[in-house]
Structure formats: C-alpha cells, structure tokens
Specification:
The structure holds two protein chains of two kinds. Chain A is built from eight helices and five strands, in the order H-E-E-H-E-H-H-H-E-E-H-H-H. Chain A is α/β, with parallel strands linked by helices. Chain A folds into two domains: 40 residues, no CATH class; 196 residues, no CATH class. In chain A, strands 1-3-2-4-5 form a five-stranded mixed β-sheet, with helices on both faces. The longest helix of chain A is centred in the C-terminal third of the chain and has 24 residues. Chain A is globular, with a radius of gyration of 21 Å. Chain A starts with a helix and ends with a helix. The N terminus of chain A is likely disordered. By secondary structure, chain B is mainly alpha-helical. Helices cover 91% and strands 0% of the residues of chain B. The radius of gyration of chain B is 16 Å and the shape is rod-shaped. The chains are: A alpha/beta, B mainly alpha. At the A-B interface, helix 8 of A face helix 2 of B.
Chain lengths: 243, 65
C-alpha cells in the first residue's frame, strides 16, 4: 500500500520532468520542444497479456517477459471440463496481446501452448467465445512439459495435478539456472471462480509484481491458498461420503 | 475427560466459524472441512493440555493425603 502511495506521490514529479526537459538536453540552435507532452507510462511498467503459441512460436522472445499455463498432461474426457474452465478464466482475465495498447517489449505475455503453429495462429485470430473449444483439445503438451522441466531446473517445486503458471524474467533467460522464475501452483483450484481469482491475482502480480517475483508472502495470499485447499479437499471428502 | 472434549469442541467450533468468516470457502465441502479441522485440532490440544495439568496436580494431592 505504501509502495502505491509512494508511486502516486512521485507521479507529479515524473510528469514535470517529462514536460520541461533540462536546457542542456537540446541544442541551443534548434527551437525548444513544446512544454506540454503526453504523459507516458513509467519505464518499468509491464502490462500483462495472453497469446496462443505453437512449438515454433514459443518462446516469444519479442516480449519483455513471458509465462506459460503448463499442465503436466493432455486433457482426458474426465478432466476436460477442468481444462475448459481454466481456459475460460485465462481468456477472461488476460487481454489478447493485440488488444494491449503497448509495444510487445513492454508486455508480459502468458502463453497457452498449442500443438501446431498453424492452429495457434488460427486460434489467435478467432473470436474470444470460440477459442477454448479449440485450445483445450489442441493443448501443446510437449511445450508445457519442456517448460515444467526448465522450471524444475530453476529449483521450482512443482507437485500436484497442475496447471502451473510459470514465468521467466527476463523472458530470454528461460532455462538459465540464474533466471528468476515466477511459479503459481493451481493444483488446488477446482472451480471457475477460483481460477478467475488466480488469473486476476496473476495479472495484479505482474503489474505490481515485486512481492511475488521474489516469492513473498502476505496474509491475503495465505488466506487464498487455504481457501483453495479446503475447497478442493472438502469437496473430495463430501463426494467420497456421498459415494 | 468428556468435559475437556466438550470445552475443546466448543472452542474448536467457535474457531471454525471465525475461520469460515475469514477464509470464505466457496463450497459446502470447504466449510465442513474447515469446521471439522478446527474442532479436531482444539479437542486434541485441549486433551493434551488437560493430561499435562492432571499429571502436575497428582503428586500434590498425594502429599496432602
């Protein structure tokens, strides 16, 4: 909270700096630039986005950083609904990278892997309502397994049924043991509301980032993790007793 | 012993209700599990504590006799 307040307090100063450059910044012979300019986002700002990517389109190195929704297995008839609600939550919480009004170099893209490049391109061009019907059956397992492997190389602990949200910063350092890896284990998520909450939190973490990039903890996160856990196992126990 | 379980269980139920209000589980299973864990935990802790205190009190009673 205090971090946000600090940012807000420093905002007028940033705008002033941009509006009135120091005289030494431009030659005396040329006319001075206009004193009023449009405020631009702070240089450190990273905007979250999403894209579907095939084997040759991954990793998307043109982005500032990238992540992946990595399931350890392809959907089967039993768990396909779970994949579907994750996809729906992913699509509803994250804007497509073409809809984000920022260059790719300022976006942190979260990838849903697809089996083939051509299918990924087709899904990227499809309307939002229809993408999950194609993205789930064409899930790109080899890409996901490779990403999980590389996250494990980065000493991430990935146990459970997944999916895992994995991100590398900077994106080009994926697989490098020194690269920072952001990990979110969604194994305990059992309904679309929780999935949406996780993706919304993911978006917030990307934008405000610091605590989770550094594996930080706070009370809200603890509460959320407990809720996911009791929701999942409570449901399982009730199902067991109902037979 | 039954009295200890009753007190522990009551405190556990109270803790469970507070936890439910804070955690806000999204399904009935989550609510039930949270309540169950709180009751079991408080009953166990209550039982262990009463055993410890009973052991401490016993030698004093013998001395008085």
């Amino acid at each position: 909270m205090s971090e946000i307040n600090n940012k807000l307090n420093s905002l007028p100063e940033m705008l002033r700096r941009e509006a009135v450059p120091a005289p030494s910044e431009y030659p005396s012979s040329s006319p001075p630039p206009p004193t009023i300019s449009r405020p631009e986002p702070a240089p450190a700002e990273v905007l979250p986005s999403r894209m579907f990517a095939g084997p040759k389109q991954y990793p998307p190195r043109q982005f500032k950083a990238y992540g992946i929704v990595a399931f350890p297995a392809r959907p089967s008839p039993d768990d396909a609904p779970r994949y579907k609600f994750f996809c729906d939550a992913y699509v509803s919480a994250l804007p497509h990278y073409t809809d984000v009004r920022a260059p790719l170099s300022k976006q942190m893209v979260t990838v849903w892997p697809i089996d083939t490049d051509s299918e990924a391109t087709r899904i990227n061009g499809a309307s939002r309502d229809s993408v999950c019907g194609r993205a789930v059956p064409n899930y790109g397992l080899p890409i996901a397994l490779h990403a999980i492997q590389e996250a494990i190389m980065n000493k991430a602990v990935l146990d459970g049924r997944g999916p895992f949200l994995l991100a590398w910063a900077p994106g080009s350092e994926k697989g490098n043991p020194n690269a920072l890896v952001l990990v979110s284990n969604l194994s305990n998520v059992s309904n679309i509301e929780d999935a949406k909450a996780v993706f919304t939190q993911w978006v917030t973490d990307i934008q405000e980032d610091q605590s989770l990039w550094n594996n930080g903890w706070n009370l809200a996160k603890l509460k959320f993790i407990i809720r996911l856990w009791v929701d999942r196992y409570g449901n399982d126990i009730i199902k067991y007793f109902k037979g | 012993m039954l009295k200890d379980i009753g007190i522990g269980g009551g405190l556990g139920a109270l803790l469970g209700i507070l936890l439910i209000a804070w955690i806000e589980p999204t399904n009935a299973g989550g609510v039930a599990l949270l309540l169950f864990i709180s009751v079991v935990l408080c009953t166990t802790i209550g039982g262990v504590l009463s055993l410890i205190f009973r052991r401490k009190r016993k030698p004093q009673t013998r001395e008085n006799e």
